[in-house]
Structure formats: C-alpha cells, structure tokens
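Running this now, will post back.
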Amino acid sequence: MAKNKKNREFNFEESELIIKCESTIAVALRDKDQLLEVGFTNDKRLAFQAQLDAFKLISTDTFMLGIQATRTQEKDTARQSVEKGLRTILAIASNLYGADSAKYRQFGSANLTRITDIQLMQNTRSAAATATFLIAELQPEGVTPAMITALTTKVTAFDAAVNSQIAAIRQRDIITEERTLKANELYHILVKVCTLGKNIWYGVNEAKYNDYIIYDTPSGDATKAANPEITGILAGTVADNQTNAAIAGALLAINGTQLTATSDEYGEFSIDNIPQGTYTLNATAAGYQPFAHTNINIKADEQTDVSVRMGKVG
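Update: finished.
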C-alpha cells in the first residue's frame, strides 16, 4: 500500500491557519510588553512572522493538482497519437497478412485500449521494428520508412509524457508533505503564543483573552474530530476495470469532507485523519468515468482498504 503520510495536527484548513497566525501576531504586537514578561520576545514574534511568510510561499495543493492534471492530459494526448499511428500500420499488416497469421502476430496486440501505458510503448516499439524488418512487403501497401520513423518519434514523446506525469505526482506528494510539516510547526508556535496570551488575560480582560482562543468551541480546544484516536485511515488502489492496469493521477475525495488524495504511479492512495463514520468515496481520472464507492465504514484507529475500478469513457 501507499506509504504513510504526515498528518495535520489541527482541525481546520491551512487557509484558516494562516488567518489565525496573522491575527495572533497582531495581538501579540499589541500585547508585546505583557508577553515579554513571560519570555515571548520581539525576536520570537518576528521569527513567527518570518515562518508564516515562508509557509505562504509553499505551493498550494490546488496549484500542484493543476500541474498534475495538465501532465495527465498531455500524456493522454500523446497516447492517442501513438495509438492512431500504430493502428494505421496494424490495419495494413492485417489486410496484407491476415489477422490470424504468424507475421501479423509479430506486430503485437491490436487491442490497444486494454493495455497499460508501458505495454503500449513496448508494443509500439516492437511493431515499428517488425515493420522495418518487413518494409519490402509493406511498402507497396502504403507503409513507408517515414511513417515508421514518425511512429517511433511519437512513442518517444509518449514515454516522456508518462515520465512527466509520474514526476508531477511525486512532486505533489513531496510538496504536500513539506506543507503539512511546516503547517504543523506553525501550529505549535500558535498554540504556545495563545497559551501565553490566555494565561496573561485570564480573569483580567475577557475580550483580550478571547483574542487568543484558537478553536471556536466551549473549551477553546480542538473538537474530538481532531483526535487521532477516533479517526481512521482509508487506503486502496485505483485500476482500470477491464485491464486491471494501475491508474495514476486519479483524484479521490471523501464526500462531505475536504479530505482528498491522488493515486501514485502504482495506483495506490491513502487518506488519513478521517473521523469515524460511514462515507462515500468519489474517484475521478482523465479518460475515465467518475466512480463512487458507497457505504465505506471508517473505524477509530483502523485502516480500511478499498478497491476502486474505473471504466473508460466511451
């Protein structure tokens, strides 16, 4: 299964974390004299601000997902170009030799939509080599050396597009992990400053005390949903429902939440910190029909495994 990912240690969105940090820095400036008495110096406040500014520069998941979607679309377009070029040669070879002949079988599988990207690249290179070897027989039927060269160029571009898609998926995972790590570090500082502020104004000034409350709950603490002991993990694989080929770059989203994940190059995904309950998992991927997996039961401190099988469009 997919590797464990770093978890967020707070129960709100990262955009809200930024707002809470900005407002806390502002009241910390207002209360700088009182905070100085308990060890929160001006240098510490400036360091808090610098860490917040650095966090804002980290690419958002929306941005990284956009790059990934673009690379996936480019890969799909390159694949379609390869399939079109290969089908032309296969059609001519079938007409010349017959679909059941040994020579035709040397060109590889003709069922191109049911093979993986890697298999298509291998199949196309093998077909190009076979066509080159049999060019004297194929050329009178319309296959030219230029046609074979063009097909080889297309498969090289397809190979590069597949690698770019995989790189985009990996880069998104790296950025997500970095952003989560930095967000947790910010949250730790936020908690420390707010604890100091609440201790200063407790029983003295209710309005200023409230300025340091992080969670809008009666206790001012995180709700139970943020407690990892009553949350679970959803993990699984995404694959083509006909070929069982892994689908990379699929977007998995838990209905009714903002929890999402993207399948890696092996089709694997993992979503952490899911409050226990029953959910629907929605899956989308370029070139595939949307898929919904219903009645998924998430239990406290357990991992639930699911298998997502998606059908191609058309």
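The first strand starts at residue 231 and ends at 240. More later if anyone needs it.
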